[in-house]
Automatic annotation (TrEMBL):
Family the entry assigns: Belongs to the glycosyl hydrolase 1 family.
InterPro entries for this protein: GH (IPR017853), Glyco_hydro_1 (IPR001360)
Protein's UniProt keywords contain Thylakoid: no
Alphabetic keyword roster: Glycosidase, Hydrolase
PANTHER family (UniProt xref): GLYCOSYL HYDROLASE, LP05116P
UniProt-recorded name of the protein: Beta-glucosidase
Gene Ontology molecular-function annotations: beta-glucosidase activity
One Pfam family per UniProt: Glyco_hydro_1
Principal EC category: hydrolase
EC number: 3.2.1.21
């Protein structure tokens, strides 16, 4: 393959609640995911993140796995309730010490720490006050970010303020399939705005404390109309606004996208106050792109097959049938499926990256592909793992094509280093390069781990 840009980041990615465990140790407070998993029926098989991969205790082993893999970057998230158990006030020393040790160990192995500040584990005390529906939570995010940056800012290689606000709003506040389990449908839009406001308020806090690049990450999806009919094209445009533009236009362009397809006048939203959009548009240095598959939609009431289209909507099915949305999710046929049922479409990543460039032009900062990977069956004792190898190979080729077409991409992070707690799916979906025996915690590198290590060795 062609050479990559200088300073390219090869990495893996994880999230605190999905791997750390130790939910009641060293002063950590409860998060919305602790509360959510305690409710019967919320998570498959009643699984929780109480132990997860036990990374809180086994982190030296996991750093050694990354070093052996040959990555030069690691994207991880800091657990907000481990730093501020009540979501407010001074930092918890033991929680900060944990991440301090982790960052130092990464530096010793020449692995750049890429830190995500918020990956969905809101302190439960803030949720008790309304969570992201409460404007004050945006200010609490900035306060928390300052505490983390005061301790780690001299060694962090890049900051990510938010992970996938679209998914968090939709599944957490819109339809309730993720924590905190609210089902507000379109009334969840204030959560989107307050997350973006929190991002905007956090950027100058980080600038004061660190010279590392700053960005945020969203789950992006190319949106395909089910047909060339004008109604289906309009449905695709409406979904593009909800998943992609709602979380990017305010950051890069300083304005809200056209929300008229939802019967909403963007300039009349009562929760958007004077000065908010200017704060949200604080200049950023990177845009994080998480990609798993495209989305195919049609106009409501269309005819044809129903099924998984690969987007967040495919995970919720009937939960949105009565939401009054101007689109319906339909399958993407003709492609292999992951164990999650998502279509494998590497060309969709190329389409997405070039589409972001075409949409935002010189407003688009350099891109990091901050998550890309697949769940694959775990029923082979030899862990041949060919599905994941094929998936990664195809998507890496798509990234190379996008770079060749002039898109400024600076790094690629596989989701995920470890099999982990996959939110509402519990431990049923395995995304890791490394197999985890959740009964014992034992780690076993899979064939995809060895394949990726060989691929990285070509670039040294």
């Amino acid at each position: 393959m062609d050479p990559l840009p200088e300073g390219w980041l090869w990495g893996t990615a994880t999230a605190a609640y999905q791997i750390e465990g130790a939910v009641a140790e060293d002063g950590r407070g409860p998060s919305i995911w602790d509360a959510f998993t305690a409710e019967p029926g919320r998570v498959k098989n009643g699984d929780t993140g109480d132990v997860a991969c036990d990374h809180y205790h086994r982190w030296p082993e996991d750093v050694a796995l990354m070093a052996d893999l040959g990555v030069n970057a690691y994207r991880f998230s800091v657990a907000w309730p481990r730093i501020q158990p009540d979501g407010r006030g001074p930092g918890n020393a033991k929680g900060l010490d944990f991440y301090d040790r982790l960052v130092d160990a990464l530096a010793e192995r020449d692995i750049a720490p890429v830190v995500t500040l918020y990956h969905w584990d809101l302190p439960q005390t803030l949720q008790d006050d309304g969570g992201w529906m409460n404007r004050d939570t945006a200010h609490r995010l900035a306060e928390y970010a300052g505490i983390v940056a005061d301790r780690l800012g001299d060694r962090v290689a890049a900051w990510i303020t938010l992970n996938e606000p679209f998914v968090h709003m939709t599944e957490g506040y819109g339809i309730g399939t993720h924590a905190p389990g609210e089902a507000l449908l379109l009334d969840a839009l204030p959560a989107a705005h307050h997350m973006l406001l929190g991002h905007g308020l956090t950027v100058p806090v980080l600038r004061e404390r660190s010279s590392a690049p700053i960005g945020l990450t969203n789950n992006y999806s190319p949106v395909w109309p089910a047909s060339d009919a004008p109604a289906d094209r309009a449905a695709a445009a409406a979904f593009d606004v909800l998943q992609n533009r709602l979380f990017t236009d305010p950051v890069l362009l300083g304005r809200l996208p056209d929300t008229s397809a939802y019967g909403i006048a963007a300039d009349e939203l009562p929760f958007v106050r004077d000065g908010d959009l200017a704060a949200i548009a604080a200049p950023i240095d990177r845009l994080g792109v998480n990609y798993y598959s495209p989305t195919r939609v049609r106009a409501p009431g269309g005819t044809g097959p129903d099924g998984a289209g690969g987007s967040v909507l495919s995970e919720v099915g009937g939960h949105i049938e009565d939401a009054g949305l101007p689109f319906e999710d339909v399958p993407i046929d003709g492609h292999p499926l992951t164990a999650f049922g998502w279509p494998v479409v590497p060309d969709g990543l190329h389409e997405l990256l070039t589409g972001l460039r075409d949409t935002y032009g010189d407003r688009l900062p350099p891109i990091l592909v901050t998550e890309n990977g697949c769940s694959a069956p775990d029923d082979d004792p030899g862990r041949r793992d060919q599905d994941r190898i094929d998936y990664l190979d195809g998507h890496l080729r798509a990234v190379h094509r996008a770079i060749g077409d002039g898109v400024d991409v600076r790094g690629y992070f596989v989701w995920s280093l470890l099999d982990n707690f996959e939110w509402a799916e519990g431990y049923a979906q395995r995304f890791g390069l490394v197999h985890v025996d959740f009964a014992t915690g034992a780690r076993t590198p899979k064939a995809s781990y060895h394949w990726f290590r060989e691929r990285l060795a070509r670039y040294r």
